[in-house]
Amino acid sequence: MNNFITLTMRGKTFYRACILLVACIFLTCCLLNIQSAQASLQSELPVQLPQPAQLHQQHQPAQPFQSAHSTQSAQLKTLTGNTLTDGSISGSITDSTGKAMQYINVSANDNNGGYGYGNTDSDGKYTITGLQTGTYTIQFDPSGYNSQNGTNIAYYQQTGISVVQGQITNLGIVQLTQGGSVSGTVTDINGKSLEGINISGNNFGYATTDANGKYTMNSLPAGACTINFDPYSYNSANGTSLMSQQSVATVVQGQVTLNINAQLSQGGSISGKVTDSTGKALAGIPVNGHTSDYSGYGYATTDANGNYSLDSLITGTYTIDLDPTSYNEQNGTSLASNQLTGILVVQGQTTKNINAQLSQGGSISGTLTDSNGKGLLGISVSGSNKDYSAHGSATTDTNGNYTLNGLSTGTYSLSFGTNTHNAQNGTNLANQRTTISLVQGQKISNINLQFSQGGSISGTVISSTGQALAGIYVSVSGSDGYGSATTDAQGKYLINGLSRGTYSVRVELSNYNSQNGTNWTSYQQTGVLVVPAQTTENINAQINQGGSVSGTVTDTNGAALSGISVNIQNWNGNSYGYATTDSNGRYTISGLLGGNHNLSFDSSSYNSSNGKNIAFDSQLMTLVQGQKTDNVNVSLRQGGSISGTLKDSVGQPISGVPINISDLNNNYSNHSAVSDSLGKYTVNGLKAGTYGVQFNQYWNQIGTSAQQWYNGKYVGSEADPVTLAEGQKVTGIDEVLEEGGIVTGTVKDPNGKTLPNVDVSVYYNYSKSGSSYYEQVGTASTDYYGNYAITNLKAGSYTLEFNPRDYNDCNNTFYSLQRYDNQTTNAKATPITVKAGSTTSGIDAQLQKGGGISGTITDSNGNPISDSLSISIYDVNNAGYLNSAQPYSNGNFVINDLPVGTYKIYFYPYAQYAAQPPYVLEYYNDKTSLSAADEVIVSLGKITTGINASLQSNGVQAVAVTGVSLNTNATTINVGESQVLSATINPSNATNKGVSWVSSNTAVATVDSNGKVVALKAGSATITASTLDGSKTATCTVEVKDNTQTDRQNIALDKEWRITFSQAVDSSTIQSNILLWKNDPVTKTKVKVDITPTIDTANSKVVIVKHLIPFVTGTSYELSVNVGVKDMSGNPLSKESRLSFTTK
Is 425 helix (H, G, I), strand (E, B) or coil? Predict the structure, then answer.
């Protein structure tokens, strides 16, 4: 029933009041991912945020160069051991009359670090040499030509230009045309002209505002252009904190697009002082501040007095990182990094006295040698803690020595990269890793390693027609390292420097597709075994045409949403893609495999940047490889929120605690927050549903509060749910967090040898529906000395697991999995007790040697099964579950951490998007129960092979879907109402009865995964149901009628409207949800009329609507009330309703 009760009129005089809301969007810069043309081990350095010069880089007119040249990454370019000549690009440039153009700057760059540039000569010719094989974007910059000739020639670029080493790519004649211009004025919100604001186009163009705030930007190509208004230089010169802004202009060739204006508002600021432990001011310390999703970001360097100020910040809760690395290098100090969390910022205000003290850090040092004991020069060493808030790096000297300084308390992952050393010395030493725990100020020495010959992976990448593909990025990752390469002209790649282990090889086509306009699918192969001093050959990939999905994202009013993150992924994780909606709300993701995918729309960054609360959404869909799936449109609704306050056991607020939201299956959404200085948090952008709330999910952060779920629960399966209606604001989700407990110990073998890289996990035991479950709540890996520490544990009883599988993979050993204390199953494990704020030490393990099993899983036709399958191991003697594994992409599996004993094996197929598992479950050997399964004996130091399984399709033979029908082919519903459509699958015994639902017009009607259709506004939409098996479809046409009330005639020109609701109205929800439109009789369109809706001071249930200019005689108007009008608790008060009327 509609809560919109009455509409009445009263005569009033009108006054004009205008409020301008400016959406301020921070510009971010992406660091170029430089990829080597040979095997390239990527060290685990933390992500470095861009400096201001990168965030606000000014485009200056190109100056003439005497010669063309290029620059490439300083790494060996050959992939196969043969020296190849560099590639080149040449061509000539003329104007539209064919006249040669001199001083045109031509640049070429790809995504793998290759680039070059040069100028045209008097004949308009150019050549760029020294380019590596790859796919390039070519930019033609006429700014130098324009300045010398007084012209307005447009910038131009070409993408997808292939370059092969040893060959010349001739682009022929490029003809540059006349450009367009954009002009406007930039002021602050008070109308003051702003001089010195930098203006830039999305790809080309640059200007600066003059003393009157005016600018003109020339040489722009025709079409839509995003205009960026950047006040960074102005702020620096004037001590202000203005926010950047964007607008979209349409550029017309030979014309000036006028009045592209901007009003810049003040942002928030954070200021403070940085000192050392003696109180001495520290100059030159980089200070980075950011929100949890980096939509808010600021950077500064402390001045001579140690002061800093982060300006132009959006409202939000910030984390500040202080990195003294460069200061230490310049001053010979060893200060540790520091991090401040939970800092609340409000636009237009300054959060002061956010001071920090940097103390002396610890250090890690050692010597790296080859197998003969000779020191190794040029090995890169990097170390970082779990969340990358602390890090260090070094390169070994001529004696192989290294030192990492300035380290704060934590457990560090150390990576030793042989990339540069191998390139300079023609060697193939394997990369290595280890972990080290230290306390701030502690100096740890003698972390020495000996390097031996590494293994390699090689192969060829070809298209489905057999054509070799050059410039394709290939990466490998495994338990003890990863590397990358780019294919050469013959499509070949070689990746060196790999340690012993099993690797996954991925051929990534996303950049290639975007540069070349292709739609190739990426490729992935798992279970590739690498052995030292050997090359694993013929890991080839044949690339096929992929499918694609595209559509438009809008709000419920049909307005395009720019900056929404769109992600798609199948259950196996080998088909995925992402995009961000453009200024028209459009997105396209290509290169996808066929099959069932989950398509999600993440609004978190959009909300942070625009001060909105739009809800996320997702849907299941079926793609057909090689086909386009267009018009997958979505209308995102108003989001709800969850908020609360966090305190410690004595009632003090706790800042800096991460809060994450999960769905009922405990899968984390992209919605999170960090508690501010008052302990308060708010998580926005939530659609209607039931959620779990987790506090402090990050493990291994010493000295912080315990991780737990809402209402003091240990795990998500027990957490008290929080239910949201659409747009509802749920408050009071408060939590008292105790200080976390710690568990420590050491892992050795029977001879006392310490074992690094053993995974140690903490499990919490709980009962549900009469069954016992164990859920992981903490994890760590043993360090160089075999030590581990697991922190942030809530007081209680737990079991521990010691898993040496990664260690075994890398060292070709057979240490066996163990539960504390010397048990094989969780059921028999000795529990440990953890106390709040205390350390439970001495939880050690001595791992015995064991063996393993291996085999291959196929279907009844002999095809490998790798997806959605678990291989579970049961210990016969201890009568319980021991361990599990998943097969590689070729169907093979190896489990190398089993104690000597007798086991039974269970092959359990499951499917994320199917109504039932695709294969019949099976126990070894072709048995249907655990008791009947054949026993498998594991012997010391051996792999028991041939534990194979051939799984039958569920029901012996899968029954394919032949068709689908709906309960109705057409229906009519009113705005605000809903109707559930049901699908009938034929035949009735089909194996997979899953259905996905899509609306052709989500601005009119949406449909969820259960077929529920919700009418949003008048119009027509087609609802399509697609079967997940076979992509059979059925449609229903939905006509939506509005709630327009009976026309009213002869309305006075000075009337006002009074709208009465059933509850008191939240005034913050009426401005954007109560609208007045004038029906233009000439253009046949609706024109928005300025109004001022206000709450009646005498009755908070009544909204008074005043229009700001008199009505026009004899004109038709429409007053609309949207669903966004809420009561004081955040609940909707009305369906969409309208009243049409005509004036006298």
Answer: helix
